[in-house]
Amino acid sequence: MVSFISFHRKGGSILLLCTCLHQTKAHWRESFIFPAFSFTNCVLLYNQVLVATITNHQSPSNLFSEFGFCCFSVHFFSDIRVCGSALISSNQGLLNWVLLVFGPFSHQKTTICPDFLNPKPWLNHLWRKSENIGHRRNSMGKEESPQVTRRTTRSSSSATVGTKTCDSHPLTIKDLVFGEDPISLNDLLSSFPGRRIQILELVRLLGASNSPMLPLFIYGGASSGKTSIVLQMFRHLNRPFVYSSCHTCYSPRILFESVLNQLLLHRKDAANGYSSAKRCERPSDFVNFLREALSNVINNFKGNSGKLGTKKLVGQADGNMVYLIFDNLELVREWDKSSTILPFLFNLYDILKMPEVGLIFVSNTSPDTYYSNMGYMEPIPVHFPDYTEDDLRQILMKNQANRKLYSSFLDVVLRSFCRITRRVDELSTAFLPLFQKYCEPLHDLGVVPNEEMKRRLFSHLQPQIAPSLNEVFKVSSQSSPAAESNKETKKKSSRRKLGVCAEIDELDFHMSTSAKYLLISAFLASRNPATLDASLFDSMGGIDSRKRKRKSSQKSLEKKENAEQEILMKGPGTFPLERLLAIFQCLTSVAEGSIDEEEHGDEGSGVQGGDGGLMSDVLLQLSSLCNANFIVKGGSCPLEGSTRYRSTVCEDMALKVARSLKFPLSKYLYRR
Ligand SMILES: Nc1ncnc2c1ncn2[C@@H]1O[C@H](COP(=O)(O)OP(=O)(O)OP(=O)(O)O)[C@@H](O)[C@H]1O
Fold first, then answer.
1. Is residue 124 within 8 Å of residue 132, measured between CB atoms?
2. Atom 20 in ligand 1: which residue has the minimum CA distance?
3. Quick one: pLDDT at residue 188?
């Protein structure tokens, strides 16, 4: 055995562990991983172990088929044997995969990694766990199914060779449906708390089987359930579909070939040299091949339903419609430098003119980021809004063995974490070790905690909360690239890590520096409780440590915190002009030097150094920001009669602006 590679899937991400290669991290990345996935975290653990959290929405088998692994096998390990992939604990609805890969490898430098012979305990543990489940799975003859599975039938083109566990049956038309028993609408709805409206809307838009549909555009924040729900919806509907993610299909050719491979029931494997059914680079070729492939599939379905009359065979699809799903569409902009693919995909419906084909685009950016009167019909938008705290509680409570205990745990952590992220994957990942810690003092995990016990458990957990919050904050604000050796790779990797927000460092509109400071000031005024202004800003704009040190009684501190928390929960607050100007002055007094420099050649902006200069056109800037709807007038104060304002920008946007100024916004943001 010369290598161990595991994919550890947690929510929307996969942890990839790998030992034994004499490759540098950069080499790895360039060779196969980097182009295929977005890293969200990447560290080189002792000597030879690469641990990377990569964002991907595929099971390992789909990874194989979609791309990553084939390329890896071809270029790196020409003789690779995949001896088994196993599903490990699906605790809390998380899917954990382990993939074991064995040599021999042709790569000359490959030797047995000493670390692997004596792996750290957790690696050992992972290994044992995967072995156990692997055995159990073999003895049961089928894979354990997680709560919310991704389609695993299209292990199709996996790079597996001659092993028992790999799925090597010849693909048939039946493989175009989800591949597991259909689920009822009720099951679908209860699998995804907080998404009732969206699921019903999607089911309505897809219509009855055989009814043509207009293209759909499903959008919403990361980890808001778009992919899982769409796939599970097809499981419910039992209709044939093709799923391609622009994460793993990161060039037009790979995307086109992935769609065609699925429609042509082609599996990439060693026998065909991991090649696709068709080589297809140009959109025009794709359209021709696609038409042909779709017609065959549709005729096949029509033929089957005609032949079988009303009797439906197991695994047979409902209806003659075929749906093409393009996920993570926002990533196309990153890899399609010619900017032709998006208009092409949006036009596909008109180009194909095949009523039996449904198109579904999934993106985590909104429709306005795509269409610009290009002449194609805009797909019907379906929005997946961010989850509320209550939704998240229901989602996280799902499948908990001891609901009362978990609920008491959520009582102490959920609110604070929700202020930082509402992503299900980030929250579940953060809560896993925290819950373990919370339960440490317990002998019986089935216990129903009383108030005294809750307090004890909380005080045991408390020291872990702040570090964990910081960790989540670092990841979610995407500002902490993992330890990287050189600057160039650091930049590259952080771009990858950012995924959809890859352009986060670059503002896509122009704004003068003072307007940017004003926008940030308004954001802070809306976000922070006014009572904290004095402690957050001193006359030099910095955080006044003196004031913070002032001692208050525990009770008054708590009272103050509660009041502040309440303000936070109400969303962006309104503020008077005076407060905005005061914050603006504090911030700009620190940054004047840099503004001076930057604005020197920018006569038109009318901003000069010095207090008077900076403030001189601030009202003008304010009115521009109001016109652009970055700040809105939020009604007037009934007592004073003066106008109040409210910032409308989200935290991402504010961070983006702050980054463009190299301004440490998070230092000024109130977080409990
Ligand atoms: N309402 C929900 N109920 C249960 N699990 C959920 C829900 N929403 C999201 N999840 C879980 O969160 C994880 C991420 O979801 P998913 O990948 O479907 O999100 P997404 O919106 O497609 O994300 P992205 O935009 O990053 O592709 C999955 O494990 C999914 O099962």
1. no
2. 223
3. 95
Considering only CA atoms, which residue is closest to atom 23 of ligand 1? 223
Binned at pLDDT 50, 70 and 90, residue 554 comes out as low
> Model confidence over 571-591: pLDDT tens digits?
677 888 888 888 888 877 665
Mean pLDDT confidence for 133-143: 33
Q: What is the DSSP string of 421-482?
A: ---HHHHHHHHHHHHHHHHTT-S-TT----HHHHHHHHHHHHHHHHHHHHHHHHHHTT--PP
| d(CA 95, ligand 1 centre) in Å | 12
Alpha helices in 76-120 (DSSP H): 114-117
The CA 246 to ligand 1 mean position distance, Å, reads: 17
What pLDDT was estimated at residue 540?
Answer: 53
ipTM, two decimals: 0.98
How far away, in angstroms, is 229 Cα from ligand 1 center? 8
Q: How far is the CA of 213 from the centre of ligand 1 (A)?
A: 25
Q: Which letter does DSSP use for residue 377 in this model? A: P
- Cα–Cα distance for residue pair 497/293, rounded to 1 Å: 36
Handedness of CA 20, 23, 29, 33 (dihedral sign): negative
> What residues does each domain of the chain span?
5-157, 173-384, 403-476, 503-668
Ligand 1 center to 12 CA (angstroms): 7
Single out the residue of 149, 634, 196, 190 nearest to residue 385, CA to CA: 196
Specify the higher pLDDT residue, 154 or 429.
429
What's the CA-to-centroid distance between 393 and ligand 1, angstroms? 14
Taking the CA of residue 228 as reference, the ligand 1 atom at the shortest distance is 18
Our mutation pick for probing the ligand 1 site, out of 87, 189, 195, 223, counting the most ligand atoms within 8 A of Cβ, is: 223
Q: How confident is the model at residue 224 (pLDDT cuts 50, 70, 90)?
A: very high
* Residues whose beta carbon lies within 6 Å of some atom of ligand 1: 11-12, 57, 93, 148, 192-195, 220, 222-228, 328, 364, 395, 424-425
- Read off the pLDDT of residues 12-61 as tens digits, 9 standing for 90 and up: 333 333 333 323 333 333 333 322 233 333 222 222 223 333 333 333 33
The domain 173-384 having CATH identifier 3.20.20.70: the answer here is no
Find the Cα–Cα–Cα–Cα dihedral 99, 104, 108, 113, rounded to 10°.
50
Question: Which segment of 42-51, 518-527, 578-587, 609-618 scores lowest on mean pLDDT?
Answer: 42-51
Among 369, 424, 501, residue to substitute to test ligand 1 (most atoms within 8 Å of Cβ) = 424
